[in-house]
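quick one, 304 residues, struct below
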Amino acid sequence: MTTTLRPPSRSPARVGTGMAITSMLCVQLGLAASVGMLADVGPAGVAWLRLSWAGLILLVVVRPRWRSMSRRGLQASVLLGIATAGVTLFFMAAVARLPLGTASALEFLGPLGVAVAHSSGLRKLIWPALAGAGVLLMTEPWLGTADLVGIGFALGAALCWAAYILLTQRVGDEVSGIQGLAVSMPVAALVATVVAAPSTAGLLTWPIVAWGLGLAILLPTIPFTLELLALRRLTAGAFGTLMSLEPAIALLVGLVFLHQQPALLPLVGIGFVIAAGIGAERSGARPAPIGLPEVVVARTSPGS
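---
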């Protein structure tokens, strides 16, 4: 009688990390592709188009079952939609004024704050601290040459992103599948419509609308779905630190596709944030209840 050895299953942290990294790559490629539309409809118009198409796609594909959701799950989904609109609108406004890598580095202060808030013990604080040092090296605030309005927009996106992380994990725990995302994205589209439609609706053409559909698939439909699934496998603190890889990815995408060349110190900062992301991946799995599959996580606080 022969015994077949099964390969060990991948840990929740490793699977969640792969989802998060794929999401970040989609986000930065989507942002790079969006830059070309800024001159046509402005940052608010680009954000509005992406969110509107994404909301419509999820409504048609997922068909959310509103009545099956708990009151807490529905409320969290609506709040997530507001946070999603905020991070999208603020960040597109920042990208219109700052290099992609700089804007992403400043926006990362939101996830970094989540990571610090949910860390306990000096060892767990090493990774957020290392990532924070990398962000400083990439932004070089001591030069005093950055656009202050753009920095303000990026910091607004950081606050919204911190809320987005916590709310995404809550929605993932409260609502099955991606039903919560199918509620939050249309809410985000409505918020963006109120903010952007009055000033940009007259600028739309059919080619721009069609291009917006393609962008919506790349960002935010695919990455936001992956982040929802990743946050079922990672703690909010580990996910927040893992997002330190995003400024590094943004610098590389900006270099390859937008020809934005970073200086030496930003390149050193890339190494710092990559090291912090690796450290977060190795210690960031969310505990699953005994007897349940790994993908099913107890309804606990975001930092559990």
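The mean pLDDT is 82.
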